[in-house]
Amino acid sequence: MSSVRGRCLCGEIVYELNGELRHMTHCHCSMCRKAHGAAFATYVAVPARGFRWVSGQDEVTRYESSPGFLRSFCPRCGSVAPTPDDDGGISTDGDLVFVPAGNLEGDFGTRPEAHIFVASKAPWYTITDALPQFEEYPSDSALPSVAQAPRHSARRGHVAGSCLCGAVAFEYAGTPKVMMNCHCSRCRRAKSAAHASNVFVDPARFSWTEGEDRVVTYRLPDAKRFGHAFCRTCGSSVARAVPGAPVVNVPVGALDDDPGTRPRAHIYVASKAPWFEITDGLPRHAEMPAG
Question: Residue 81, Cβ neighbours under 10 Å: how many?
Fold first, then answer.
């Protein structure tokens, strides 16, 4: 197959994959949901000899989410980055590098094979496809179990959210205005996932409870509104609260509680990842629906 390129949202970190891509799975563990801020993370493996950094390798920041397991991200825009085995990554046979599929360009031909860690699935996400499901790793895997992400408690009547390392925490009261699954290429790169799932909250009902000063907000140049907020320590997507904006954008994967609503629709499906199939019955919009 031809080379496949991956890059972060800001373009600082670029890498290239050569060789057969395989073992593509949707991971629903709480660690991945927190790190990506999404309903699930999707990873695909490439032989280690086929992985090459093109630029930005020295910029990659790493966070040890559990003993011996490093998670990498771009410190400028917060996109998740690969972690090759010699940097502390985990592989199935010692010769694979797992990369986040949301940052890969084009249709590389590989399709997801299974859902893993469905025992930790987000309560607001329903799996509707026919792929095999495993409570943790498949039974023939020798990989270790994954620890649960730390949780924050909210005040009564509030919904809590936090980053993977726990340095950043927030909460909101009441029911969000709306929840959407966004498939635009910007969201896919920012979340390093198949799509973003966000709730939009009234600013008057939102508050930081810890670590507001630890939040980095990357604003995409030439974009009128788009940005990505993340924890500077662990890279996890967190709420983006822009002063004066009519809503606070909260990535639902960062929540420690049920969001109090469910997705209303899929938006920007004209930009959908070619390897992800929408199988639920939610309305679909090529871009942002009017009104």
Answer: 27
The pairs formed by 214-219 with CB atoms below 8 angstroms and a separation of 24 or more are: 214/163, 214/167, 214/168, 215/168, 216/75, 216/78, 217/242, 218/9, 218/10, 218/76, 218/77, 218/78
Interior/surface letters 98-112, b for 16+ CB within 10 angstroms, e for the rest: bbbbbbbeeebebeb
Burial (CB count within 10 angstroms: exposed 0-12, middle 13-18, buried 19+), residue 180: buried
How is residue 160 written in tokens? Answer: 């809590």
How many whole angstroms separate alpha carbon 203 and alpha carbon 249?
Answer: 9
Task: Return the SS3 of 87.
Answer: helix
Look-up: residue for tokens 């046979």?
93
Q: What is the pLDDT of residues 62-82, one digit of tens each?
A: 999 888 788 999 999 999 999
168 contacts 238 by C-beta, under 8 angstroms: yes
Q: What is the DSSP code string of 228-255?
A: EEEETTT--B--B--TT-SSEEEEGGGB
Contact status, residue 63 vs residue 70, Cβ threshold 8 Å:
yes
The pLDDT of residue 78? 97
Q: What is the pLDDT of residues 226-282, one digit of tens each?
A: 999 999 999 999 999 999 899 999 999 999 999 999 999 999 999 999 999 999 999
| pTM, 2 dp | 0.91
The pLDDT value recorded for residue 288 is: 86
Are 10 and 77 within 8 A, CB to CB? yes
Please report the pLDDT score of residue 125 as a whole number.
Answer: 95
Q: How far is the CA of 272 from the CAs of 121, 124, 172, 186, 284, in angstroms?
A: 22, 21, 30, 11, 11
